[in-house]
Request: fold
Amino acid sequence: MEWQVLDVEPTTDYKLFLTFRSGERKVFDFSPMLGKKINKPLRNIKLFLKAKVHHNTVAWNESLDLCPEYLYENSVAVK
Reply:
């Protein structure tokens, strides 16, 4: 399962630098998702920066997480 997240590094410009089980390093731009009602708490940068790996994906708490397949498919390789 290459899309499993092993590490996440959130940034102050709402990006997530991700390391996947495949060894790939990618960046996911979360900023377009900030307009969605469910993501409103993550507009608080202090909360956003608390992103962590939980069960092979990125999560902030019990109700805020992202599907690892979505992250993999919608992120861009880091050069």
Observations:
- The CA atoms of residues 26 and 78 lie 5 Å apart.
- The chain has two helices and six strands.
- The mean pLDDT is 96.
- Residues 68-73 form the longest helix (6 residues).
